[in-house]
User: Fold these one by one.
Assistant:
Number 1:
Amino acid sequence: MRRIKGGKVKRIQVTFTEEQWSLIERFKGVMGSEDAEVIRNIILAWLAEKSVITERVKVMLRGEKPEEGSTRPPHQG
């Protein structure tokens, strides 16, 4: 992983069909100007919509450690 401005960065390669890419390109200028920026913002918007980000923050605010690789809070029991 590379470091940019104090944080670690993970680069990945993804493949889209022409139809998928055509849809994604419609968001250029709205969700970013570069391909990577648009894709990143689409993913972050989806995670926010599904409350994944909110749930992880709630877990961390309760002082619990989020489960590795999990998008759900630890079992309450």
Number 2:
Amino acid sequence: MSFMQDLFLKFFNFLLNMDAFSKSILFSLFLCVVEKIIGFTFTCPCKHFLNQQIITSIFFGPFLSSFVVMFIRLRPFRYPYFEVEDRRSATPTDAEESQRSNEAKAPRNCPEAFAYCLIPPFFWITFLLLDGDYVACASTTWDGKYVKDQDLDRMWCQPMDRYMNDSEHRHAFQGYISTSQSAGYVLLGVFSVVIAVLVGIYDCFKSGKAKFCRGKHQDTQQGQQEARGGECELEPLVA
């Protein structure tokens, strides 16, 4: 076996053994590369209606495609809805240990699987907003030609009508870019806060350390103990 074949097999096995969250992040990085490639070849038509059509396609085409790819890979409806089943046994066998390892890499419930499916589409929208050129192109209301501007140090729709003020339209185009990038950073910040809050709430109910979560945690532990037929005693909660 050649070195390249061995390297490819190791990389393929590495991808197969990744958990759902890591796969979502890796796919998001792949979409980042795709966005950069599109950016190198992107040309704004600089015609109002065509601008909106092509930008809408760029936003929602890969958005839906990436969601479908993750949906097919994770199959969210295979998992229970808001339920985390405890499959541990008192003396697990090697087969149970292997199965437990595989289950740890899979989503624990349907909403979690759906959340993983939405991570790559979310980052795709964020990448486009942070770029700025796409929203600026869609927001352009005048006919022009897509040329390089020395002041902006990027491409923009220069008006073809010689009676139009280039400086005014250049300023408007730059404003569209700034608005798009600001929206991208805000969206990224909101996403980070929401994820942190959801993870904190989940860990709270899972551990039962907080007072308002303790009752829920006790009910969960009691239900798991009854399901195991009382094989083990309920451990006291640590304040």
Number 3:
Amino acid sequence: MHSLARLLLALMMVGMATIGQAAPLLHGVVEVAGKLVPLPPGRWLPVGEAIERHGEAVFATRALARIEAGAVEAVAIIRTNLSPRPPAFTGPSDCARGDIHLAHVAYDTDSDGLCLFINHVVLSEDVAGPPVWLAARETLAALGAVVTDTWLAVGIRARTSRHAIDVRYYFAPPDFRSALPARGWSDNRWSPARAQADADRRASIRRLGVWALWAREAVELGLRGEIPEEALPPAPWDGPDIAARLVALRVGKLDRLLAAGQIGEGEYRRQRRQLEEVGIDPEASALPLWQRGIWKWLSHGVASAAESLGVAYLVIGSLWPTLGFGALLEGAAPVGSYLQRLLWSDTIAAEAVSPTAPRDFAEIGLKN
């Protein structure tokens, strides 16, 4: 009986080794559908692949895991478009939240965008997660790897007029090996309120914020097809001060620009001074996304109306006729736009079937 048990155990170990050897370990960068994605230091094992379809939009999805001492220390879930970039593929709603550790929009236009967020995610039986995560869980279970129930997630989404990529880096918290089981999302030890009340956890979140800034730049470069080795982010918890390393990297870029004559001394000193004053946390968006949208619409409308009235006044030369003419234009504009859409019905039909995608993808656990 004991010999049979030993034989079964040996066969199980061989099976686990085969799983681990089936896919080569990755270092530094992984390519997904022609885009390059930066990976923190360590050996990353591919643990899941899937094709996600949302209407006419098709996304390639991959999951990677970094396993150390029998436990999963990090997971990366990568999504990128296979079909033409959906017009609705804007920043995720998490980039506009005010109740998580960080929500930061670098830029957001009709043609391109870049944003990031940091949130804690708690695994739950009530949340199955996306298909690629289900595949990853099966692989990790077969390997016997320990999976923590609380993750610190860094989400980065970058897009151009043709391509888009959404990367979620999930890091096991520094205390995950000794922590008690999670108690939900809002009362979790890594919730914003509780993390800010603890010096060690607060420092970890601030450090992760700097890491997210570093990774954000690397993801943006990878979307465009090239990530220099010096742009690869370090591990968030290890090594010397990460903020000082990031500042040194950017100062080095400034030095090269100055030496090449691409910037002048004044601009160099201005940017150098900004870098020397950099804080740990990237600047968060001051207003929620819907408020920023309203403000943008109002300010654009006021500027446009002022420009039209100014030109009309120069032509007419009288205040009241100018105001009447301006009111007529403001009323005629939406009517003209509506009539144009009726005349161009083919365009409307094409828009109705153009690829679209949800703003948010399924999360691996509770995110609020």
